[in-house]
Amino acid sequence: MRVDDLPIRRVPVIAAHLSMAAARKVALLKQISLLLVERDNQIVGTIDDSALTADNDPTEVAAAMRPLTTSLRPATPVTEARELFIRARASILPVVVGGFILGAVTRSDVERARS
């Protein structure tokens, strides 16, 4: 089984200059624990559930984001995806192909697929 066999969720994009309060509202509205961060028309990072639950409302998204370093590919086997989740300490990761972000997959979906 591969990542493209799992449900791939759409991921909202938020501007780097906005506040974490705004990011939290977007994540709540979209019911997702990962946001992509955009600066100058490029995706530069992510805001995940750990940043979204922190008490840092006035902080700019750019200061709280993680640079986009870990992602999955559609052809990634779920066993390898699980290892990437563990190393990244993430509950959700983006799925990327050819420079395009297709969406995101949750660790719980990967764990269910393995069982």
Describe, in short, the structure shown.
This protein is an alpha+beta fold. Helix content is 34%, strand content 27%.
Give the topology, please:
Layout (H helix, E strand, L loop, with lengths): L12 E3 L4 H11 L3 E6 L2 E7 H5 L7 H4 L1 E2 L10 H11 L3 E6 L2 E7 H8 L1
What can you see in these coordinates?
With 115 residues, the chain is an alpha+beta fold. It has one domain (3-114): Roll (CBS-domain), CATH 3.10.580. 34% of the residues lie in helices and 27% in strands. The chain has five helices and six strands; from the N terminus they run E-H-E-E-H-H-E-H-E-E-H. It has helices spanning 20-30, 49-53, 61-64, 78-88, 107-114; strands at 13-15, 34-39, 42-48, 66-67, 92-97, 100-106. The strands form two sheets. The chain has a four-stranded mixed sheet. It has a two-stranded antiparallel sheet with strand order 5-6. Strand 1, helix 1 (20-30) and strand 2 (34-39) form a beta-alpha-beta unit. Helix 4 (78-88) packs antiparallel against helix 5. The longest helix is centred in the first third of the chain and has 11 residues, at 20-30. It starts with 12 loop residues before the first strand and ends with a helix.
Radius of gyration: 14 Å
What's the β-strand tally?
6
* CATH architecture designation: Roll
- Using the coordinates above, name the CATH class: Alpha Beta
Shape: globular
User: How many strands, which pairing sense, and closed or not: the largest β-sheet?
Assistant: 4 strands, mixed
Task: Estimate nothing, just give the exact number of structural domains.
Answer: 1
Helix-strand category: alpha+beta
Distance between the termini: 11 Å
Helix content: 25-40%
- How would you name the CATH homologous superfamily? CBS-domain
What order do the strands of the largest sheet run in, or round the barrel if closed?
Answer: 1-2-3-4
Please count the helical segments: 5
Provide the succession of SSEs: EHEEHHEHEEH
Beta percentage is 25-35%
The CATH topology name reads CBS-domain
The residue ranges in which pLDDT falls below 50 over 5 or more consecutive positions are: none
- Roughly what is the average pLDDT, rounded to an integer? 90
